[in-house]
Amino acid sequence: MRPPFPHIPWTGGDGPRILGVNPWITDFAAFNVWSRPVGLLACLDMVRRAGASVALVDCLDPTWADTKWPRPGKYGTGHYPKEEIDTPEPLAFMDRRYSRYGLPREQVRRALASIDPRPDAVMVTTIMTYWYPGSLDILDICAELWPDVPRFLGGSYATLCGEHAALHANAHLQQGPMEAPDNWDSFWRLIDLPTPKLPEYAGLSLSLDLYDDPAYSIILGSRGCPFSCEYCASRALYPHFTQGDHTRITASIRSEYERGVRDFAFYDDALLINPECWLWPALDSVTDSGLDLRLHTPNAMHIRRLTKEVCLRLKQAGLHTVRLGLETTDFDHRNDVKLTREEWETGARNLLDAGFDLDDIGVYILFGLPGQNLDNVRQAVDHVRAFGFRPHLAHYTPIPGSPMFHKACQASAYPLADEPLFQNNSIWPCVPGGFNWDQAKHWKLLLQGK
Q1: Domain count for the chain
Q2: How confident is the model over 333-391, as pLDDT tens digits?
Q3: Is 344 among the domain residues?
Q4: Which segments constitute the Radical SAM core domain (predicted)?
């Protein structure tokens, strides 16, 4: 007999009850690298500070799992439990197993059904465009349980694939940041309430306390990115680059630390831009307080900003996991002007001089770009290994709203613009011939130096 489901508490004011749901991942593969639905957590935070009561059901979190969850890996990362499901018809050609990652579907349904009192509105997010099947499934469950409760779908799928979402999602679409004036006003009007004042630092403050006994937490000091890389849709998702207040960020770190969290992952797209605005004051406070924590940068840092001083300060503050965005060593034909060979080699030396171990440093190399010469990828892998660093292939995801998407549509054999499932980087959408097991094995061995 299954154990009774734990009570999911409402927290906040006496206003409307807003439920947030982070759906399952539906994909050929998934691994937890400090994953949190940062956009949803920002939305829940701003409505709670505006007087609402909020609750969270995260299908990717083991907090209330009554099923066996894989043991955490290094620094809180690790595998998700998974259940093999039918591959969506458009992807039926793939010779790979397709799975639902996270909590069992029936357990999530029982969790939602147990919520009392019922919500006045439901917010569902989508982290990747091609994970939308999980979001649509959650919306259907919510519609079945509470047919008259307004449902809102946000995140990358709703924002970047709006026409597709409008046809398939049984929900109001929230396209772009909720703190945008039109979105903020529209949300309250759709739940028949007057629009409250938008809280200060909306979008940069997160409801991290909604996770009970978390294995890790995140730090968000900025939204958006001042750069415009061809393969990235950051500007389409967050048009403006904004940075937060270091006192609020420090308070969030301290609060999570007091709850027992020791691993923190930065979620900034441009962590080292204007570090004096919030990063250095926050890290100085952490260092001065003697907090024994570990910091991680799963989003690649900009190598040209890794001066000797920056590397020393990051090391002193407790940075453990370093990820760099090299992208390619074909410096004469890069897709951007962010990095020269001299800047790359100087940044690499500065990290080592600051005391970072080679095992701490991973370097992302782009793979599968439209028209990419894969010999250049091999050269980049060899180049990174010559430094003693660990190369990682960053498989290209064709993202609507990115400058390169039109080129991807021309290069791909799949209708990328019509069906978001084809935007999945697991199928190698812009590599001639697509995903191939023999080639996958070849690249795996190459990364290992074999």
Answers
A1: 2
A2: 555 555 788 889 999 999 999 999 998 899 999 999 999 999 999 999 999 998 899 99
A3: yes
A4: 211-430
pLDDT at residue 200, as a whole number: 95
DSSP 373: -
Claim to verify: residue 169 and residue 237 sit in the same structural domain: no
Are 30 and 64 spatial neighbours (Cβ–Cβ below 8 Å)?
Answer: no
CA angle 412, 414, 420 (to 5 degrees): 110
Q: Are 107 and 247 found together in one domain?
A: no
Torsion angle of the four alpha carbons 135, 111, 207, 360, in this order, in degrees rounded to the nearest 10: -70
415: left (phi over 0), alpha (psi -120 to 50) or beta: beta
What pLDDT score was predicted for residue 332? 59
**Residue 284 and residue 179 share a domain:** no
Cα separation, 382 vs 387, whole angstroms: 9
Indicate the pTM of the whole model. Answer: 0.95
Q: What is the pLDDT of residues 285-317, one digit of tens each?
A: 999 999 999 999 999 999 999 999 999 999 999
**345 is a domain residue:** yes
Q: What's the confidence (pLDDT) of residue 102? A: 96
Query: Which of 144, 134, 83 has the alpha carbon at shortest distance from 112?
Result: 144
Q: Could you give the CA distance from residue 303 to residue 285 in angstroms, rounded to a whole number?
A: 25
Co-location of 169 and 239 in the same domain: no
Residue 111 belongs to domain with CATH number? 3.40.50.2300
Please check the confidence at residue 2 and state whether its pLDDT lies above 90. Answer: no
> Taking a C-beta distance cutoff of 8 angstroms, is the pair 46, 203 a contact?
yes
233 and 343 fall within a common domain: yes
Range of the domain at 27: 11-190
- List the CATH number of the domain containing 443: 3.20.20.70
* Shared domain check, 173 and 43: yes
Alpha-carbon gap, residue 228 to 160, rounded angstroms: 16
| β 11-12/53-58 pair status | antiparallel
User: Do both 266 and 350 map to the same domain?
Assistant: yes
Token reading at 196? 């409250």
Contact predicate 90/49, CB 8 Å: no
Residue 392 tokens read as 């990682």
Determine, yes or no, domain membership for 289: yes
Instruction: Give 55's strand partners.
Output: 19
Query: What's the pLDDT band for 67 if we cut at 50, 70, 90?
Result: low
- Beta strand 121-124 pairing with 17-22: parallel
C-alpha distance across the termini of the chain, in Å: 49
Which residues does residue 121 pair with via DSSP β-bridges, in sequence order? 18
